Each structure stands twice: as C-alpha cells, then as structure tokens.
Amino acid sequence: MKLRPYSIRNNIIVANTFLIALYAILITTIVYNNNRYNAFLHLKNQILNLSALSRNNTALINTFLVNETINPKFYRFGISQYVREIEKNKQKLFRLKQSFKANEYQSIVEELNTNGFFKSISLQLSVFDSLKVLQLERGFQDFGTVGKMRNVIHRIEHRNLLTSKDLLTLRRHEKDYLIRKQKKYVDLLNHEVEHQIEAHCENNTVQMLSNYQYYFNQVIALDSIIYIDDNSLYNKLLSIDLGLIRQIEKANRIIDAHEYRFDKIKQIRLISFSVTFILISFGLNLFLAIRLSKNLHALHLSLKQFVASGYRESSPLKLKLKNDEVTDLIYNFHLLKSEIVLLINNFDDQLEKRTQKIEKQSAKLQERNQTIQESLAYASKIQQALLPDLKHIHKIFPESFLIYEPRDAVSGDFVWVKEIKTRTKDYSFAILGDCTGHGVPGAMISMIAITSLNHIILNKKRYKPDQILEYLNNKFNDLLKEEGNQQKMYDGVDIAVVRFDNITKELQYAGANINLFQISESVLITHKSDRTAVGRVTESNYRFANHTISTSAGDLFYLASDGFKDQFGGENNKKLKSIGLFNLLLEVSKYDVSSQSEVLLQEFNQWKGQNEQIDDVTVFGFGL
Predict the structure, then answer these.
(1) Confidence (pTM)
(2) Residue 301 and residue 576: Cα distance in Å, rounded?
(3) Among positive and negative, which fits the CA dihedral 454, 459, 460, 464?
(4) Residues 565, 567, 571, 574: is their CA dihedral positive or negative?
(5) Region 79-85: what's the mean pLDDT?
(6) Rounded-to-10 torsion of CA 193, 196, 197, 198
(7) What sign for the dihedral angle of Cα 411, 416, 417, 418?
(8) Which residues pair with 621 in a beta bridge?
(9) How far apart are CA 470 and CA 456, in angstroms?
(10) Which residues in 203-357 belong to E strands, given as ranges?
(11) Hey, which of 77, 154, 205, 302 has its CA 20 to 30 A from 214?
C-alpha cells in the first residue's frame, strides 16, 4: 500500500521508532539497577517470611485456644489441624534458619538479631506444648477432668441422690464458674457440697459428692495454671507474642532504613534517565501535535458551526487542507451533515405530534393518580381509627412502647390491645399481626383480622390465646375463599396473642409465625410460635400450642413483625436477620421502656441507610 507524503501513519511510525529506542535505553538502566538490588531483596524476603511464620504461629495458637479447647474431637483423638500446621511451620523455620547463615549480608543479619527471633519462637512453641498437654488433662464436656466431674454429677442425678432443687443449685454454680471463671462461684459450689455432705448420711451419696468436689477443684487448679494466674501459660504466651511483635517491628525498621538507602541510589539514577526521556518525548509530541493540529482544527471549526446551528445548517467547505486522512474525514463529515439536516427536520414534525399526544395522556394519568392518593389517605385514616392509640396502650400496659412504621400509606401490620374485666377475671391482651403483603391488600386483610378479633374476644368471650387463634383460623378459612368452586385463597396473617392475668400474674401466649421474646435478668428467652400462619395453607380445626410463662418483676416482653429482621442494610447490604434482632433487643433492654422505641428506631434507620423499606415494621414491647 502506497502512503501519502503527509500521512499520519508515516509520522506516527517515525515517532514511535524513536520512542522505542529511548525505551530500550531506559529498560537497560532499570535492569542494571535491579540486579544490584535483588541481593538485598532476597534478605528482605527472608525477614518477611520469618515475620509471617511468627505471626502465623501466633494466629494458629490463638485459633487453637479459641476453637479446639471446645472441640470434643480434639479431646477424643488428641490431634488438631492447628497443631499439624504448627509442626509444618517448625520445619519451615529450620530451613529458614539455615538460609540466614548462607546470606551474603551477614552484617545486616547480625544487626537484625535473627538468633533472638528463633529463640523466642522456640520458647513460644515449648510453652504451647505444655499448655496443650494441660488442656487435654483438663478436658471438656465428657472428656478429661471435666468429663469425670460431669460423669459423677450425672450419676448423682440418675440415682436421685439429691433433690432437683439441690442438684440444680450445684449445676448452676458449676456452670457459672465454667463461664465466668470467678472465685465466688468456687466458694459457692464448695459450700453447697459441704452442706449436702452434712445433710446426707448415706456413704454412697457422701462419697460421690466428695468425688464431684475433688474433680471440680482439679478443674480449678488446672484453669489457674492454664489461664487465671498471673504466671499462667496463657499469660506467658501473651508476653512472648508481645516480644515477637517488638522484634518484628525492630527488624522492619532496620530493613526499611537499608532499603531507603538503596532506593535513594536507584532513584537518583532513574530520575536522571527519566528526565532525559520525558524532555525528548515532550519535544517529539509537540512536533507531532503542531504537524497534525491544523487539519484537526479545521474539522473542529466545521463541527462547532454545525452544532451552533442546532444541527440544521450545512454550509459548503472553503478550506485548503493537506492530502491526509483528516482531509477525507472532513469531506465525509460534510456529506453526513447534509443527511442529518434532512433527518432532523422530518423528526421534528413527528416529535411535535407525539408530544401533543403524550401531554394529553399525562394529564389523564395525573388526574387518576390524584384520585388514588386521596383514596389511600382516607383509607389510612380509617385504618388508624381501628388501631389503639398510645394513650390507650399505656393505660393497659403502663410500661410499654410501640413502633409502627408502614411501608406505604396503609399497612398490613396491626396491634390489638384490650383489657377484659369480669367479676372473676382481669386480663390484659396484647396482639400483634402481620398480614399477607403490605399496602392496600395487607390493610384489607388486617381489617378482617381486627374485626374477627373483636368478635371472638369481645362477643364470643374466648380468652385463651390458642382458642383465639383457632377461632381466627376457622374464620379466615370461611371468609377467604372463592364462591362456586370453593377454592381457598392463600392469604392470612402471622399473629401472636399474649394474655396477662392481672390477678395471678400469669402470662399465656400462642403464636402463628411470630415468636414472643422475653428478657429476664439480662437473658433473652425465645418462646417459639407454631410454624404456620392463620389462614393461607393452615387447615380448619388446626390446634395451636398454648404456652404458660412464669414472670418476675422487671421482665420485658417483645413482639415484632418480620419487616424489622428482613430489612436489607449494613455494610454488605444483607438482611438484619433474627440474630441481629436478638442483639438489638438485648441492647435496648438496658434502657427505660419509654426510651427503647427511640433507640430501636434509630438503630433500624441506621441499618437501613439509603435502602428502601421493604415491608411494614411493627415492634411492641412491654414490661411487668
């Protein structure tokens, strides 16, 4: 192919050839510097490997202490994947120690004090071996000394040598110590054992209690050596870990200082060549820019004139241009402009006709939307009238709060709170429901549910929670079906019914897919609901479970629809889930009940962030 004398391709080939020659000189310089630098980098990599192995050993030991000490397989077989990894690291450390001896930078090796590194790591592994042996002796669950202790107390339990109350007291003190490792629980258990020994004269009972006390004290002694004492093996490991961290930091500072010196020399050489390369490249690019910009500027002027005319004016070209590719582009662009002008003129006519049609349709849609919004606003007022206000709720449950956050104007969630007083009964009811869907469909189902509850409790006088759910389920099965073929509609409500007897202080609960959460003495208890909903696929005459719950002063209870735990948010944009809700309830239980709704709502909005609310959110909490 024959090239034009002013071809852009010719100019670029010449410029690139010259730039390639400059690149070759620069690369040769870089290779020369790198060869001198590689020897030092090898030493640096050895130090990095030693630091990595040290950190890896520390991580494996810490992971072993967290995972394997509560892993029954470790106590059954006496082996662990973490121990195997540590043994492999020993071999790597040996090979690394030999490589340090062969390094040509022995002055830097001595300055780094690598022998101190290896001594610290050897001491760390020695202490870990001792800790592993003692941990096996201590045991866990059915293994070791803990297993012997549990075996004795289980034999006492199976032979009924102690009353359930006395046995529960012993087990509670044992569990408190194993969880908290505090001396007061040791004293409480020993005191209780001594008391039981004095109270029982049977040799067998006394002997088994003594054995139980002996094994328990053995566990305490082993815990002191392993964890509790100031000179425990665990504390020794922490001290060694801190020493290794300081050694690693010191080694890094030494390496960084030497690397800085090497880098300085390399940078001076590289900068000198780079500046030369940049100056030559700049001059070459400036030459090409001047050579080619004339033609491109002509194209720019033609395009600017065309845009300024609104793509409707195509003027003839009066430019004297060189014979190159940009010249052809300008002439072809001029032909394209003429075609564009014709197309735009035709398009304007079509666009005006369609715009008039769209404006008419938009006016109709706006009118319909206004009607729908007014209807939803009125429906919201009707629904609010059916729900209890806070004044009514606080009259029945003085220590309570309600979070009610519909996703749309109307909601599928509802709360039903009533007080029933007769000559012999004084009940306070709290019911939370989450109907199928949200918005208008959910609101319609919620109104059916509220009306049905009024009929069942106020008219039919059904007060047991399980009976209320059974009647409500039958009502939904009768109402939500299509006439003629009797085909059942799969709509209904997840619901929880709580009844508190103000006379006996007894609380009863029954639920359909909504659990009841109780916080007593800072412990969260979940009372499980039936795994089915009222209506939907639940057959008529289904028998719901009724739960009778013992209460104490200061207990807190919570009911929540699934809109709270199913909300997407957080750093990974995932659902909050049940565990997230549990943690939040435990956290807010520390506050006054009057403040809990504000804290919960703040946490929910922070979790949601910029995400849209996906469902109606309702949370009802009360204290006794």
Answers:
(1) 0.45
(2) 59
(3) positive
(4) positive
(5) 81
(6) 130
(7) positive
(8) 401, 558
(9) 10
(10) none
(11) 77
In DSSP notation, 457-500 reads: IIIS---SHHHHHHHHHHHHHHHSB-TTT-PBP--EEEEEEEEE
Q: Report the range of poorest mean pLDDT among 223-232, 535-544, 584-593.
A: 223-232
Percent residues over pLDDT 90 in the chain: 27
Q: Which tokens is 471 given?
A: 């009647």
Nearest to 556 by CA among 591, 504, 517: 517
Please say if the pLDDT value at position 324 is more than 70: no
* Mean pLDDT score, 457-485: 84
Residue type at 173 in one-letter notation = H
Instruction: Please tell me the predicted confidence (pLDDT) of residue 6.
Output: 55
**Amino acid letter, 328:** D
Query: 524 and 507 in contact (C-beta within 8 Å)?
Result: no
What pLDDT shows up at residue 485? 45
Q: How far apart are CA 588 and CA 597, in angstroms?
A: 9
Helix (H) or strand (E) holding 30, with range, is helix 8-67
Do 49 and 218 form a contact (C-beta atoms < 8 A)? no
Show the tokens assigned to 222. Answer: 């082993």
Residue 386 vs residues 416, 447, 449, 562: alpha-carbon distances, Å: 9, 8, 11, 22
Q: Which residues contact 248 (CB under 8 A, 6 or more apart)?
A: 51, 54, 55
Q: What is the pLDDT of residues 101-137, one digit of tens each?
A: 666 666 666 666 667 777 777 777 778 778 888 887 7
Residue type at position 577:
K
d(CA 583, CA 578): 9
Q: Average per-residue pLDDT in the chain?
A: 80
Structure tokens at 315: 């003027």
The DSSP annotation for 154-194 comes to: HHHHHTT-S-HHHHHHHHHHHHHHHHH--HHHHHHHHHHHH
CB 258 within 8 A of CB 174: no
CA 5, distance to chain mean position in Å, is: 66
Backbone angles phi, psi at 517, to 5 degrees: -100, 130
